Amino acid sequence: MAIRKDANTLTIAERTEFVTAIQALKAEGIYDQFVLRHANAIMSAIHRCPAFLPWHRRFIFDLERELQRVSGNSNLGIPYWNWPSGGANASMWDDNLLGGNGDAGGVVQTGPFRTGQWTVINSSGLPAGPLMRAFGQNGLPTLPTQTEIDQVMAVTPYDMPSWNINSNPSFRNQVEGWIGPNLHNRGHVWVGGSMLPMTSPNDPVFFMHHCMVDKIWHEWQIRFPNQGYLPANGGPFGQNLTDPMNNTPLGPIGSRPIDVLDSIALGIEYDDSVLQPQPSIPLIVVGAGPAQADIGTAGETDVFRFEIPSFGPYTMYTNGSSDTFMTLFGPNDPNIEVASDDDAGENFNSQITRNLSAGTYYLRIRLYSSSTTGNYAVAVRSADTSPSPTPIPIPELVVDGASISATISAANESDVYRFTITTDAIYTIQTSGTTDTFMSLHGPNSQVPEIASNDDEGVSFNALIRRQLLPGEYFVRVRHYSPIGTGSYTIRVTRG
Amino acid sequence: MANYKETFEDCEIEIKDDIHLFINGKLIDYQHDRAKNKFSSKYLPYTQYDSLLELARAIIQHTVEFSHVKE
After folding, report:
1. Inter-chain contact A120–B71, Cβ cutoff 8 Å?
2. What is the pLDDT of residue B71?
3. A47 and B63: CB-CB below 8 Å?
4. Does position A255 have pLDDT exceeding 90, yes or no?
5. For residue B1, what pLDDT is reported?
6. Of A153, A167, A241, A246, whose CB is crowded by the most CB atoms within 10 A?
7. A139 Cβ contact partners less than 8 Å away, ≥ 6 residues apart
8. How many Cβ atoms sit within 10 Å of the Cβ of residue A55?
9. pLDDT tens-digit series, residues A347-400
């Protein structure tokens, strides 16, 4: 169990233990191997991409194991650099831990890593002079504040196409610092000197810095348990959930993002695990007047939810003078993108009109430019002129019971069914008929987690899912494979 | 297309045809973010720069491969 503490709160004995362990690894040549592992990785495979967070989680985890080995303390954790209280006068920069800022020429002259005591290496592993620092001298004079961290902590999803510095909204991209308040990149630039190039692990503060980054990701994962790592698949090689990450050795744990998603399973504990409650998502009432909102910080994304009572055409739109960009997710899953729009509304407002099936939908609204702020109003209205629809209860399928016949009668329509499992066994859910159906299975006891999906496993173009299911209530969503396709089908659930 | 050459902190920067960057004769690979019109390099993973020349100067200043800091 590694116990990671705020670097500023370490006792003198804890400081000595950490510094001694770092120096021991340097003497063994192990520390420089870590510098080279980072320096010789493909820059764009570990930065500016989804694997940024898991790659560095595994990286500092491995160093932490080495620190535990040389110290003989299996609870030794890398201290984290708590940026809001970690400015130039913080005690972590005292001579008994990291030492302080560089001199007029940038050379660190104080602390255990001062010139003469600590030599950095270049990417070839050759000695390349003293450790350099220049606090706040490279264009970013301040460190991230708690308010800015809290702002990033509210961003979802984890990441999205184009999976790089232009991904927005993206928690990873905001933490890394290419959009929003800039957390991680700012720490490197604020320290300056040896923290600027790919050999940045030459400065031991690198590991404290990334410990803070990893802590933020850990807390975000607990706060949003339904927001998984993305991309699961279909992204660039090395970035998908089960791809091996660049320049990451085999070890006690795997080298894929999926192997490092659970900090607690890795034996990591933080000293101040105060978890923020998941922010409530404002509800838009369908048919009500536009709700005022604003993007107060550049790069910010607002999230809204609304309930569709039954299938039909709906319009989601903004108005005002801001150039908005809107993305629609759902039904019942904030990660499934349905559509997006930039300028289909009046002026530069976004607007989406489409058929929606019953369920909960989510709108993410940002400004087209990630460097501007502005106000807007948002609303959802039925695009149907017929009387207000009445919610229809979800039809129930009975295991080994009768089939239910239904029809996909309009573009983008999907039908939802529920069934209850009382015995742990294998079950088959399938459609029949001449319609090319697509089916997804959700549960247990929730419409959100998708546990399986299928297109053509059944007869002809029918969908079929066969799966071991634990007792609980499950939901099946059926749509036409084509977004514009229609047709009738029947559906049933059987055991076996 | 223009060529440019200067000496910066004892290193020679050369930009050929506005797009090919050399430092001390070594061709420097870089990325141009067209959306933001910013330049960056694998040498400096945490920053972007407004021009190729600014990028070259930063690489010389901040990477141990090109800087000449003496103990």
Report:
1. no
2. 32
3. no
4. yes
5. 59
6. A167
7. A189
8. 24
9. 899 999 999 988 889 999 999 887 788 999 999 998 876 655 566 688 999 999
pTM, two decimal places? 0.69
Per the listing, tokens 């001694």 go with A20
Alpha carbon of A115: minimum distance to chain B alpha carbons (Å): 7
What is the spatial distance between Cα A70 and Cα A341, in angstroms, rounded to a whole number? 55
Which two structure tokens, joined as six digits, stand for A136?
A: 């706040």
Q: How far apart are CA A221 and CA A158, in angstroms?
A: 9
Q: How far is CA A18 from CA A15, A68, A88, in A?
A: 5, 10, 20
In degrees, rounded to 5, the angle at the alpha carbon of residue A204 between the alpha carbons of residues A201 and A209 is 80
Nearest to A441 by CA among A478, A411, A488: A478
User: Which residue type sits at A177?
Assistant: G
Torsion of CA A438, A443, A448, A449, to 10 degrees: -80
What length does chain A have?
496
A116, closest residue in chain B (CA to CA): B71
Of A115, A165, A192, the CB nearest to B71: A115
pLDDT tens for A277-305 read 666 788 888 888 888 998 887 777 888 99
Contact assignment for B45 to A47 by CB distance below 8 Å: yes
Tell me if A198 and B45 make a contact (CB, 8 A cut-off).
Answer: yes
Q: What is the pLDDT of residues A404-429, one digit of tens each?
A: 999 998 877 888 899 999 999 999 99
